[in-house]
Design brief:
The chain contains 13 helices and no strands. The protein is mainly alpha-helical. It is globular, with a radius of gyration of 19 Å.
């Protein structure tokens, strides 16, 4: 496809994104249009009152939970609903989100005098909960227990695996992306206050190296695709890794454009349709509050994420 056609398709795709849900609109303004900060903030505020964000908030229980559960049922429990609200970009100071953060933290950690992180001590769940608490800027010293757990569970190969303490010898792409997303959000939220920047950055460098050794989705031994779902772009990805999610983390973290990411970038490019959009390739099935998009149809979520990843890759000066 010639560059002029690619440019025309991109402009049409961006217009299509701007006509979508407030969660898509504000992120498009922020990442793809370079709109004034005031316009981005106004658009983001609408996530609370309109569309998908408002619909999710309406399902919150009086106790601050969703579906009266912390981690289950999937995908409607408090953890997974908050994870989706994080992806929608619900403003960090939203009072309903802070109510849920308090419930998650109190239920896992309990009073300051109690040690451990309770039901959230499985490494995947630790990553999910820490990323939520950090994204919504919930400022509490008990978050340090989640950070301590993640740093202590990092494996020799640089990644993480929920089965590490049960004999796993190789990290998991799924667990690793959850840990990395949590650490970069925590770094922005509290690292300067706690003085943990160096440890957090070192852990992320090692975690990124684990993903890079695998070119995001290939066996480091055979070069074969590790799992089919790694090359199918789903939204929401829940606890699952895929190439687009991995690249979006590298972009968000401001990581180096390592040559070993080229395989993943080429995969993203190959999935762009003739209209400049990407489809929703897969959905992880369980209960949900509602379906945002249809498998096999053009996806605003995948188009938004793919375009901002390619912009990051193709514009080193940005």
């Amino acid at each position: 496809m010639d560059p002029a056609t690619v440019g025309d398709n991109r402009r049409r795709a961006v217009e299509w994104l701007l006509a979508g849900d407030p969660a898509i609109r504000w992120q498009t303004l922020d990442s793809l249009v370079d709109a004034p900060a005031a316009d981005v903030d106004t658009a983001r505020a609408a996530v609370t009152t309109e569309g998908w964000g408002a619909r999710l908030l309406a399902h919150q229980d009086p106790e601050g939970t969703w579906a009266q559960g912390l981690y289950s049922p999937k995908w409607v429990s408090t953890t997974y609903t908050m994870l989706l609200l994080r992806e929608l970009g619900l403003p960090a100071d939203d009072p309903q989100a802070h109510h849920a953060c308090a419930v998650l933290l109190d239920s896992a950690v309990g009073p300051q005098s109690r040690g451990g992180i309770g039901w959230a001590s499985e490494t995947c769940i630790t990553g999910l909960v820490l990323s939520i608490l950090s994204a919504f800027e919930f400022d509490d010293d008990r978050l340090e227990r989640f950070v301590d757990h993640l740093l202590g569970e990092q494996m020799d190969d640089g990644g993480w695996n929920c089965r590490y303490r049960r004999g796993a010898h190789h990290a998991s792409m799924n667990t690793t992306i959850l840990a990395l997303e949590a650490l970069v959000r925590y770094e922005r939220h509290r690292a300067e206050k706690t003085g943990r920047q160096a440890a957090l950055r070192e852990a992320q460098l090692r975690g990124r190296e684990f993903l890079l050794v695998h070119h995001l989705y290939r066996s480091h031994r055979t070069g074969e695709v590790i799992q089919r779902n790694y090359v199918r772009f789903a939204f929401p990805p829940q606890w699952h890794f895929d190439v687009l999610r991995g690249l979006d983390y590298f972009r968000d973290a401001g990581a180096d454009r390592d040559p070993r990411l080229v395989d993943g970038i080429d995969l993203v490019r190959s999935k762009r349709g003739s209209d400049g959009r990407w489809t929703l390739e897969h959905r992880y099935k369980a209960r949900d509050w509602f379906q945002m998009e249809t498998v096999g149809r053009p996806s605003r979520w995948n188009t938004l994420r793919a375009l901002r990843v390619l912009d990051w890759w193709e514009n080193p000066a940005s």
